[in-house]
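Form 7-S
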Amino acid sequence: MFALTSLSIIILSSCQAPAPSASPYANTAYYGASGYQQPVYQQPVVQTYQQPTYAAPVQAQPAFQYAGVDAQAQHTASSAPIIRAESYLLIDANSGRPLVARNADTVRGVASTQKLLTALVVLDAGNLDKKVKIQSTDTAVEPTKLGVRAGEIYTRRELLYAFLVKSANDLAKVLARDNAGGQAAFAAKMNAKARSLGMRSSYFVNPHGLTAPGQHSTARDMARVAMAAYRNDVIRDAVRRKYFTFRFNSGRKITLENTNDLLGAMPECNGMKTGYTNAAGRCLISSASSGGRAVILIQLGTKTKYIWDDARVLMSWGLRNL
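Output:
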């Protein structure tokens, strides 16, 4: 497990597919076309779910450990590669020190990237082998769903892995209800967790990131979430996977492909989380490491399909300039 004084990075992503729907519920993971040619993958080795043995998850850390995020950016935006996000922040994952930023404190929606915070709250409760029974109310959400059905039973761990890899909103509702009894109570836990991480400009209403009145964050606050998530062994193991096999109670298996297109396309990339809504635009939290150096990039409010190119170019620049 990573030392408490060492931080690294993660990246987010999505899978190639049709352009986002105009529906106000067009959601979380953006499955948009990449701006660069996708590499030809070798036949993947599908990572099936096995019961891993993990050390206890890292508990909430005092906000002062993330104080480096508040420092002045080392470089001006004009000295780094230009990217098209409305707000972005690139940080040294080990110290939290900002490398380059633009509109990092602008309040805005962050879509499914807030699922990293949902995962942190779930992991604070521990007991990942606890069995959870699906209820009919858990499936009443659109548009990205795994398709679990009322009465089915899964462990928290199985649900959490599929939730982080596929960005499934039905699993977000299952995990929130299991953890706190309902969405409102879970949102209160999310906000308490946010405060413990030193997030001063964020407010969360639901566990999945679909647009809701009053729900917002900033690139700087989401960097704090990303740093905490990257330090957690379970989250790191989930978000680095290009593929994850989920087994339904019926015995049917499906291979889920991570919504993060950078996995496999950028060798240094090791996570983290994608997001899309009509209101928030395309959002991505990504991480990369090389030669002992590590960076985390928060991109919010991108309006073009080139979010993957931007992440790859800016993170590569960051790894060279640390």
